[in-house]
């Protein structure tokens, strides 16, 4: 323990700042042994009219001492409203406006996505995530300051759909479907403690069994100095083959191998609950400090200042224990002794930063309260933040590979905080259980705190989010009371990512359900019927009427053309008023929609300017060119007279010369409807779509019979670029993107009935792999047991027939089985109770021997015996005779 009996260390030729000078009251001038400096720069700051130096913290708008501050709180001079012209005729420079100190403080409502003040808000609308300040107790604190950025999203483009694992490629094309029956798994026990996925894979490589390290999950067992490993391979014969070869090749080894149930494959998704993230934290290095004072009064003042947060060390709040008195005099009543060695009063500080020096202590306490000596312990550990974080990361990596790791850049908290995301949920769960409250390897007293977090993410349109911000803001207050954290990340490409996170998975599941309901919108209905008109699906007058309702009632209306629905997003009261307005609008809508299908000549005519001429003739946005459909179409929203005029123009396409329209508006025209793009979406191939047209483009392949593939329709349909998955995910909301992948999956299953089938149970959507056994294997067709409804189905004939072959089942269903049984009964033919071989008795006694399995049978009661004499004894005893 370092201990020093001296006063404040010298700072050059002075012993510290002169507080009399700071208040304008020092009479010693340059002869003063203390430094003449204050809050401001002594070389530039001048005393105010009160004789004090100006307080720079007050000037910045955040002085914590208020009226008790020793420095001048003078108001800044008022700036002139407009500059006066100079004598030379040149305008004088305009002084900068006063800076509002609140602009430096993050707006917590903006960070949550619920600030109603918008640009008028005086607080900073920064791009960083808001988190409250670190509180007094860090271990028990519910919401802590992390200062983390949005973690990078990793998507392997695989999804768990209908009980299978689907892998997708660009254009949302299904590249591969893996069913549960395609996998097999084993568990190895008693492996060496230092085993790794690579070493386990190498073990099988020596036995000519292919195992990838990424398919191995090693689980350490520190209590037994061993580990185990679970290996899952996409090969139904792997488990049997690996166990056989391992037993044969591991003579003398203690490694054991047994088959285990196949873990359910997991695909990644942005729009799903995730339990792979760990929040980690540990105390920064600290030390204890003792402050020794001559009087109890001074010790008490310093104690109060530290506990009130007025005094801080390295800008950190520390704890102070009540002063304790102590006298070194053997005879305290002796005045002479007390005069030479007065009683000492000690204040103990805890949680002092480990890097604190004596100079930092003296800097934190004003001269008039300065202790006469300071004593300090060694820090709890002397490892820097970076090295400590590396050690913690290594501890986590023992349980499985990390997909992502980040350490908070906040240096003010008492704890160092980090986040880790594993590739596998099981790894995260094991690490959280084994490492929570575990001592760190670099400290004998510091423990690691781990929390397994459940995370749910949503991606919604920015304009929808803004319309729902009030409802989400109210829910955020409820979630905070449940120790759930909500974040709305800054907008990107017209979308915002929303994140819900918490340690209690049950509460988070309920919160996710609530948020799902909010961001899902409300369908506009009346008396149980959807409010819809065909004109709403076109970009004509009906659509413009919807836009007016949006503006009048402060809601967002999204058209779902496939379901013929209008979805409203906004406060509940606004949605109700908008629904009433839509009811009135539908009463006044008198419009019909008509379709003119184009052949190849008509399509070329339309592309060369014919459609432009037709649309100009009809006016009022009545015509829409749909080149995404097959065949290509012109949609007319108007009266029968409008349709007649349009058909006449199309019919005259061969005789009426059309001047090609120059491509002067290709940067703003939608590639599908050819109108001015509404809420434009631009692809990487530089083609523009209306937001709704692009959505319909992505959803259209699901209704066709050809392979599902999303391609660009730009350049009059000639582009045909397959849109990358990353681009689709970026341009669509998470709900829409997941719906597109599900539609592609359903389309693939529907188009490959020889490979995949749905469970036959009504309302069950699980998928299994079909098989086509033939010959001898037909009697042993695989059975699929649905994990959802538990129904057993033959993968060959897709019917339930446990215990019998497909042929027998087919015979039973067709009625042949009953006919056979009827004939056998008429002829006296019976089946062997053991092997089912048909036996006919033509002569002799009732003792029969099966020609198939050689079983001895009593023909009267069909009892079976292992020997003939036993059968005879039975017949004499039970039936009285052999005949």
UniProtKB/TrEMBL annotation:
Residues 74-98 are annotated as: Disordered. Pathway: Protein modification; protein ubiquitination. It holds the Pfam family zf-CCCH_4. One of its GO terms (biological process) is protein linear polyubiquitination. PROSITE patterns: TRIAD, ZF_C3H1. Residues 666-883 form the RING-type domain. GO terms for molecular function: ubiquitin binding; ubiquitin-protein transferase activity; zinc ion binding. The keyword Zinc-finger applies. Keywords: Metal-binding, Repeat, Transferase, Ubl conjugation pathway, Zinc, Zinc-finger. SMART domains: IBR, ZnF_C3H1. A zinc finger (C3H1-type) spans 12-39, 49-76, 101-128. Residues 12-39, 49-76, 101-128 form the C3H1-type domain. GO terms for cellular component: ubiquitin ligase complex. The keyword Transferase applies. This is RING-type E3 ubiquitin transferase.
């Amino acid at each position: 323990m370092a201990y020093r009996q001296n006063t404040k260390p010298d700072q050059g030729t002075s012993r510290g700042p002169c507080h009399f000078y700071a208040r304008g009251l020092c009479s010693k001038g340059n002869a003063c042994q203390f430094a003449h400096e204050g809050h401001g720069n002594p070389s530039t700051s001048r005393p105010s009219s009160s004789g004090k130096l100006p307080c720079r913290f007050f000037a910045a708008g955040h002085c914590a001492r208020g009226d008790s501050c020793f420095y001048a709180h003078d108001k800044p001079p008022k700036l002139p409203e407009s500059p006066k012209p100079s004598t030379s005729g040149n305008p004088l420079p305009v002084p900068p406006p006063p800076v509002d100190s609140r602009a430096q403080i993050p707006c917590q409502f903006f960070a949550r996505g619920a600030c109603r003040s918008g640009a008028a808000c005086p607080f900073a609308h920064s791009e960083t995530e808001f988190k409250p300040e670190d509180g007094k107790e860090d271990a028990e604190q519910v919401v802590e300051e992390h200062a983390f950025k949005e973690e990078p999203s990793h998507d392997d483009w695989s999804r768990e759909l209908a009980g299978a694992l689907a892998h997708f490629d660009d254009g949302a094309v299904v590249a591969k479907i893996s069913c549960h029956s395609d996998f097999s798994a084993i568990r190895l026990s008693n492996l060496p403690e230092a085993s790794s996925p690579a070493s386990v894979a190498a073990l099988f490589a020596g036995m000519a069994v292919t195992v990838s390290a990424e398919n191995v999950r090693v689980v350490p067992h520190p209590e037994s100095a061993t580990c185990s490993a679970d290996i899952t391979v996409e090969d139904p014969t792997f488990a049997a083959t690996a166990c056989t070869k391992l037993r044969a090749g591991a003579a003398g080894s203690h490694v054991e191998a047994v088959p285990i149930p196949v873990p359910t494959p997991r695909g990644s998704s942005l729009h799903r609950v995730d339990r792979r993230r760990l929040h980690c934290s540990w105390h920064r290095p600290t030390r204890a400090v003792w402050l020794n004072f001559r009087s109890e009064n001074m010790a008490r003042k310093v104690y109060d200042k530290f506990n009130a947060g007025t005094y801080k060390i390295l800008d950190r709040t520390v704890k102070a224990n009540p002063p304790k008195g102590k006298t070194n005099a053997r005879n305290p009543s002796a005045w002479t002794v007390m005069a030479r060695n007065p009683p000492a009063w000690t204040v103990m500080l805890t949680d002092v930063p480990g890097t604190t020096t004596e100079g930092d202590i003296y800097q934190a306490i004003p001269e008039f309260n300065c202790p006469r000596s300071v004593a300090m312990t060694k820090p709890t550990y002397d490892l820097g933040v970076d090295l400590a974080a590396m050690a913690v990361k290594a501890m986590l990596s023992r349980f499985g590979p990390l997909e992502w790791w980040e350490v908070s850049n906040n240096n003010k908290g008492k704890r160092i905080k980090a986040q880790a995301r594993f590739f596998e949920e099981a790894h995260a769960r094991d690490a959280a259980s084994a490492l929570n409250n575990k001592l760190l390897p670099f400290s004998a007293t510091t423990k690691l705190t781990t929390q397994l977090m459940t995370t749910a993410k949503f991606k919604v349109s920015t304009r929808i989010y803004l319309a729902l911000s009030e409802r989400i803001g109210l829910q955020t207050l409820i979630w905070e009371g449940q120790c759930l954290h909500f974040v709305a990340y800054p907008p990107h490409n017209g979308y915002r990512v929303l994140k819900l996170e918490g340690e209690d998975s049950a509460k988070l599941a309920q919160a996710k359900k609530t948020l799902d309901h909010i961001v899902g919108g409300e369908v506009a209905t009346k008396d149980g019927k959807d409010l819809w008109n065909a004109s709403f699906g076109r970009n004509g007058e009906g659509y413009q009427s919807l836009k007016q309702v949006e503006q009048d009632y402060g809601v967002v209306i999204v058209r779902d053309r496939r379901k013929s629905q209008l979805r409203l997003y906004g406060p509940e009261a606004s949605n109700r008023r908008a629904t009433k307005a839509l009811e009135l609008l539908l009463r006044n809508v008198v419009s019909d929609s008509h379709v003119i299908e184009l052949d190849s000549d008509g399509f070329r005519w339309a592309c060369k300017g014919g459609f432009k001429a037709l649309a100009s003739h009809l006016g009022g946005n009545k015509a829409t060119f749909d080149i995404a459909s097959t065949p290509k179409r012109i949609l007319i929203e108007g009266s029968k007279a409008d349709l007649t005029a349009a058909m006449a123009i199309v019919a005259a396409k061969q005789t009426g010369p059309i001047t090609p329209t120059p491509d002067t508006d290709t940067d703003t025209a939608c590639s599908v409807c050819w109108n001015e793009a509404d809420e434009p979406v631009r692809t990487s191939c530089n083609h523009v779509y209306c937001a709704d047209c692009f959505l319909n483009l992505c959803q259209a392949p699901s209704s066709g019979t050809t392979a599902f593939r999303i391609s660009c329709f730009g350049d009059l349909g000639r582009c045909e670029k397959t849109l990358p998955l990353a681009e689709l995910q970026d341009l669509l909301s998470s709900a829409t993107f997941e719906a597109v992948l599900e539609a592609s999956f359903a389309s693939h299953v529907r188009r490959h009935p020889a490979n995949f089938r749905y469970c036959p149970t009504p309302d069950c959507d699980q998928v299994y792999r079909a098989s086509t056994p033939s010959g001898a294997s037909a009697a042993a067709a695989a059975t699929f047991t649905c994990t959802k409804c538990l129904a057993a189905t033959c993968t060959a004939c897709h019917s339930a027939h446990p215990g019998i072959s497909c042929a027998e089942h087919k015979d039973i269903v067709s009625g042949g089985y009953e006919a056979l049984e009827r004939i056998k009964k008429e002829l006296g033919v019976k089946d062997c109770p053991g092997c089912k071989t048909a036996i006919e008795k033509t002569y002799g006694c009732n003792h029969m021997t099966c020609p198939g399995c050689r079983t001895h049978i009593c023909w009267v009661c069909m009892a079976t015996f292992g020997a003939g004499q036993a059968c005879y004894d039975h017949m004499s005893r039970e039936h009285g005779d052999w005949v």
